[in-house]
TrEMBL record:
It comes from the Eukaryota. The keyword Transcription regulation applies. This is Homeobox-leucine zipper protein HAT4-like isoform X2. GO terms for molecular function: DNA-binding transcription factor activity, RNA polymerase II-specific; sequence-specific DNA binding. Residues 91-101 have a biased composition (Low complexity). Transmembrane segments: none annotated. It comes from Durio zibethinus (Durian).
Length: 295
DNA sequence: TAACGGTTTGTGATTACTTCA
DNA sequence: GATGAAGTAATCACAAACCGT
């Protein structure tokens, strides 16, 4: 994780436990790729139906062609002719160059929302008319407002989306995409946190398991010794440990008790460290949100 | 120290698929 | 069961930050 860089994205809704300063997220897919998803589904299928498109959508040459094709086209070019056509339901030969393309835009492309989209688009293209525009990056203010909104509700209803878009001077689709990405990345990060938590749980349970096995061994060894029965305190003096509900031997028990047994009795009621975030020292932090019992 | 090029990270956007009313 | 809206998962592409030379 970069230190000097602002983390506007994912830090707000996540509480990191002690000793867990940062988590590295590498969302970058392998470049050589063809990486199909684990489920074997293909996600690379382009949606254009242009007859001139390369035959194998997954081939490297196809990608190269696509890239070189896109290179001359501004990805963030705001809807001018092509996009307006798309809003009207006309399909583009290359949907990736349009920020309002696809099914979603078709369903959104009506009524007030469309009006706002058009208004926003007009406004921005006026500003950036002429030269090739770089990939859009939201301003700090825009990001901050989106973050605030996300903290309040991580999904938006259409009204909220429109209002937010209007407030930020963005298209509703952009707001929607921002929220989608934000949810996805929050979830991803939470998954990593949960994974880390479970790993620590597992480690602690392994340690505890070893300790208990050792204890069983020791008890078995004592059980085999005849002295064990002779020197045992009468059952009436046994008490129950309130925490672990095992039979405990009072520390002031008869001095005639086998010292090995007494030592065992004194040591076996150590508190069991349950909190995986603090294997050595007690931590005020509990488990990650996702692992807390939900009400 | 500045400049430069390669690498890594963050993020806007798209697409295919799933879920649910 | 069919359909459409809204969501998720996976991925791409690019800008910016980082880093070694």
């Amino acid at each position: 994780m970069m230190v000097g860089k602002e983390d506007l994205g994912l830090s707000l809704s996540l509480s990191f436990p002690q000793n867990h300063h940062s988590l590295q997220l590498n969302l970058r897919p392998s470049l050589a790729n063809s990486c199909s998803s684990p489920s074997g589904l293909t996600h690379q299928k382009p949606s254009w139906n242009d007859a001139s498109a390369p035959s194998d959508p997954n081939s490297e040459s196809f990608r190269a062609e696509t890239r070189s094709f896109l290179r001359g086209i501004d990805v963030n070019r705001l809807p001018s002719t092509v996009d307006c056509e798309e809003e009207a339901g006309v399909s583009s030969p290359n949907s990736t160059i349009s920020s309002v393309s696809g099914k979603r835009s078709e369903r959104e492309g009506n009524g007030d929302e469309l009006e706002i989209e058009r208004a926003c688009s007009r406004g921005i293209s006026d500003e950036e008319d002429g030269d090739t525009r770089k990939k859009l990056r939201l301003s700090k203010d825009q990001s901050a407002i989106l973050e605030e909104s996300f903290k309040e509700h991580n999904t938006l209803n259409p009204k909220q989306k429109l209002a937010l878009a209007k407030q930020l001077g963005l298209r509703p689709r952009q707001v929607e995409v921002w929220f989608q990405n934000r949810r996805a990345r929050t979830k991803l990060k939470q998954t990593e946190v949960d994974c880390e938590f479970l790993k620590r749980c597992c480690e602690n349970l392994t340690v505890e398991n070893r300790r208990l096995q050792k204890e069983v061994h020791e008890l078995r060894a004592l059980k085999l010794s005849p002295q064990f029965y002779m020197q045992m305190t009468p059952p009436t003096t046994l008490t129950m440990c309130p925490s672990c509900e095992r039979v405990a031997v009072p520390l002031n028990a008869s001095s005639t008790v086998d010292p090995r047994f007494r030592q065992l009795a004194q040591t076996h009621h150590r508190p069991i460290q349950i909190n995986p975030w603090a294997p050595a020292t007690p931590s005020p932090h509990g488990p990650p949100d996702a692992l807390r019992p939900r009400s």
